Amino acid sequence: MIGRMSSQRDRSGEKWPPWREQVEAADSGALARVPETRRQALVKLAWVGVWLVYLGAPVSDLADGGHGTLVTAAATLGLAAFVVAYLALVFLRTNTPEKPEPWMYGVLIAQTALSALLSATLGKPWLVLFVYVAVACGAALPFRESRWAVPAVTAVLAAIGAAVDSPGDLYPALLIPALLGGFAMIGVKQLVRTMRELREARETVAHLAATEERLRLARDLHDLLGHSLSLITLKSELAGRMLPDRPGDAAEQVADIEKVSRQALVDVREAVSGYRRPTLTAELAGARTALATAGIGARVHADGPPPGLAPDAEGALAWALREAVTNVVRHSGAGTCVVALTTEGGIVTLTVSDDGRGPAEDQRPGNGLTGLTERLILAGGTLDTGRAGDGGFTLRASVPLDLAPVAADGRRTRE
């Protein structure tokens, strides 16, 4: 269900939420993880490279020639090392859940020290390096560490800026970008990670839904084919015994076999389509027929569902009746079977009891009873089985009665 909702569109025609496609593109592309192919590396390099344009101030300072040759060469090497370290951190640590390796802490400390050295010796154009250090902290460190590292780097920027920028007209303008850049990177990491977890949860829900559908189909086919095939087997045996002396009666049994086979085919198609929901009235009639064909005396104390019984609850009781009668016919060797439907205290109880041999003491419940338990739980009911008083087997299936008032047109209404 969640998987379906996530792909739906709202009334305006846009996918919901509106930023979902952009975040999914970032998460599934090269921007939110370590590049695995050359194309992903180029895309991420292009994205990260756009922000390197703000290094224009220190580059211009070097190009102006205001420093000596040795100082310019050393500063150029320092700036190149800073850029390489920054790219390495952003490439290798973006949205990576693993704990940072020790060398990454060393790189961040080296970047901070290099930024402080270049800014203190070459002047205020180099203060912008601290913004990149703050962003690198947000990208490389986990949240519990980056939330303190970003303000710490900004504090170092403020301290050095106060020393090298005496008029104070530049470094205050860098404090907010440093804070916003670092915390924006933290926020993006958290957002992408959340979207990734939501995607994994959606896949899990889809897998569980598929598993539940397979279980539903298995339950339906087991109950449908078990009952139908048991009835076909009984009628075939009966027709075989009648054929030599009573061919007319045998022909009637063969006609019944054809009807049961056709109905079984319809039931299987409905089960596969997900629309199969038996009714108590139909199953009570089928129970009388199946028991009579097997030569078992049937005492049925029920005519149909009580008023106010929800369709899901009625379907669960109908499945229980079908499975119970099938077990009586196939396994019990009983001479009599009693079916009763009672209502007491807002609970509807179906009881099927026989006087057969019953199951062994150490016999485990089969697939049919296990499926019944699952059906009744989904309908808010319970299943209870045990030996009958005369040595046979008793099955009790209970579901809550829908106590909503019934309107004149037959529809249930609620206050």
Topology:
Blueprint: H1 2-6, H2 20-28, H3 38-50, H4 56-63, H5 69-93, H6 102-122, H7 129-140, H8 143-164, H9 171-242, H10 247-273, H11 280-293, E1 297-301, H12 311-332, E2 336-344, E3 347-354, H13 367-378, E4 382-387, E5 393-400
Parallel strand pairs: 1-2
Antiparallel strand pairs: 2-3, 3-5, 4-5
Descriptive overview:
InterPro entries: HATPase_C_sf, HATPase_dom, Sensor_HK_TwoCompSys, Sig_transdc_His_kin_sub3_dim/P. Keywords: Kinase, Membrane, Transferase, Transmembrane, Transmembrane helix, Two-component regulatory system. There is one protein chain. Helix content is 63%, strand content 9%. The chain is α+β, with helices and mostly antiparallel strands and 415 residues long. The chain has two domains: 205 residues, no CATH class; 137 residues, Heat Shock Protein 90 (2-Layer Sandwich). Helix 2 crosses helix 9, helix 7 packs antiparallel against helix 8 and helix 9 packs across helix 12. The longest helix has 72 residues. 30% of the residues are buried. The N terminus and C terminus are likely disordered.
